[in-house]
Structure prediction request, 98 residues.
Amino acid sequence: MSKQFAEVQQDDFMKFGGERPSYLQIEDALMALGGHGVAGNNFKNEMVKLAGWTGGALTTYAQRAEVAQNAFNRIRGILPSVKTADELKAKLEVAAAK
Prediction:
């Protein structure tokens, strides 16, 4: 993926209307990389958790905005340099180990 994403800010998780926040664009890219549909959604959830998200299924990003911001910005820094789901997963695993 060669697309560049704007830096995710904590306020992005609380915005309604206006320009689409970067984290939603990152989620879309993750779902496309993971295969769309259920598989894409599962891949997105796995990558966000691997990047540091600690919330459960009922936890919104706004409830843990700092954690969500850090996770999405970690993905944001890696996503443009990968071409496959496996490549992204491997790079996130290395980043998480640091």
User: Anything to note?
Assistant: Residues 3 and 53 are 22 Å apart (CA to CA). The chain has four helices and no strands. The first helix runs from residue 22 to 34.
